[in-house]
């Protein structure tokens, strides 16, 4: 294909690699890359008896998370990127990046990775090509995307693809930028080898660039898990949920039903754990695919109690990044309940508890979705799965109850737009700081949030059969600073209530912020909650919400006249009801 070959040649002229390797995704290619990375220390082997085919990668200690302050959206007009993005004019950004890329691959191999986001035969799928000088990126892209020959064939057929150029450069935090050019379907990423900055199919393509494409083409690209909930009657409802980074998407996507539910015949099917592309089908419902083929999941906290499906998935053929290691060379992280202890920390030093955790808080595993015991066969369906409910949620230690339902689509869009959450280790910077993170897309929406909300509102047209919208908070804390809700498997109780609402069967009480269940509207058999937990998980704090709505009003105002009037109206209506 001329356009692709020309671009590859141009990049080679700029970056001066010693060698160019077109990746076909084959086993032989993969084995050769692994051998090379073991030889040069990029990967270390792990205990082959307990973790066959698995490896450890230790990244540079200053390169362990996404870098939101170095991530830019480069549109012609600053306003099109919006106050939610860092912006640079495209010509300036290209000049800056091309200067960094100049000669950066001397002495290295340049890998050309054709990939497809989504089932290869799906009309909802989109393709891209990533050029990188990192074999670690190649190995991860092979797990996270449909990479190689079939993707290249689709690219040749379609002609259009996202161009991602990546180099680890010198891994110098002072020479690190992640730039997006939505109008050119292009990405330039320099100076980081970390997942969200370097695996360009993921956040850069499937969220920032795709959100832009989705707006133009009438679909949605979202930071959402997709999970199928099968009830004892064999009926499956698909739920899509947006929680910010490290706030529980992987856990909810792989949920194991509590004891009583399992016995009754409830089953949970994982379609995706991080990204959801959806668009209206002929019947007016939203149909969703998971554009990814693997999981790049948070390791710490993954245990037989919290997420047995994830743990089962990562026993073989897994790349671990920045975890600790035990005496017999098994991967280890805080929260792992296998009776082992670490001897080496994520930096490769002798483990010393006084010097911090053995695994970095944002250490991750990379594994094929097919290794997950709950992997849904529908995840490969090119038509996607119909979505019954959309869930928004964040980490809110105070105010926000366990669950509530939006009155209608417009109210639901406001609920998403008003989302707040405490920051986590997934991005560099302070942890635990409450910020607005609309629809969990603050770091990922490739255009002005005001336009994004307008796009969301536009789905409510004649003939649409839209999902109901809910908000959850698994992270409400008591006066003792502990979580009040058991979470994890028990979250199915909340989902069951949502499905009951979708079917018009479950009860709720109307409040100014939406419909709240009473504790008796949920199945809480086997859960013990004290009085404080009951009050805070199911109660409604009138004065607290009134203050929250003033702050939401201020936040919407930051977007100026581009903010849809319908959201202002909705916010004002609720604020007035709360004051009344
Ligand atoms: N208290 C509580 N913690 C939870 C629950 N579900 C997940 N977590 C915690 O959330 C953190 C990680 O959540 P993940 O599911 O890996 O995060 P994610 O949303 O997939 O994140 P990204 O991959 O960064 O987008 C871990 O610390 C978990 O222990 C829950 O129901 N209750
Ligand atoms: O992008 C990453 O590196 C991991 C991720 O899912 C997130 O941060 O939301
Ligand atoms: Mn994510």
- Uncertain runs: none
Give the distinct bound molecules.
guanosine-5'-triphosphate, oxaloacetate ion, manganese (II) ion
CATH class of the largest domain: Alpha Beta
Radius of gyration based on Cα positions: 23 Å
The secondary-structure class comes to alpha/beta
Helix amount: 25-40%
Distance between the termini: 65 Å
Highlighted features:
580 residues, alpha/beta, Phosphoenolpyruvate Carboxykinase, domain 1, Phosphoenolpyruvate Carboxykinase, domain 3, Phosphoenolpyruvate Carboxykinase, domain 2, nine-stranded mixed beta sheet, 29% helix, binds guanosine-5'-triphosphate, binds oxaloacetate ion, binds manganese (II) ion
Write a short abstract of this structure.
The protein is of the alpha/beta class and 580 residues long. It is 29% helix and 22% strand. The protein contains 17 helices and 30 strands.
What does this entry look like structurally?
The chain is of the alpha/beta class and 580 residues long. The protein is built from 17 helices and 30 strands. Strands 1, 4, 5, 6, 7, 8, 9, 10 and 11 form a nine-stranded mixed beta sheet that branches. Strands 12, 13, 14, 15, 16, 17, 24, 25 and 28 form a nine-stranded mixed beta sheet that branches. α3 links the parallel β4 (71-73) and β5 (86-87). The radius of gyration is 23 Å and the shape is globular. It starts with a helix and ends with a helix. The model has no long low-confidence stretch (mean pLDDT 97). The structure holds guanosine-5'-triphosphate (GTP), oxaloacetate ion and manganese (II) ion (MN). Residues 66, 195-196, 202-203, 245, 274, 296, 426 line the site of oxaloacetate ion.
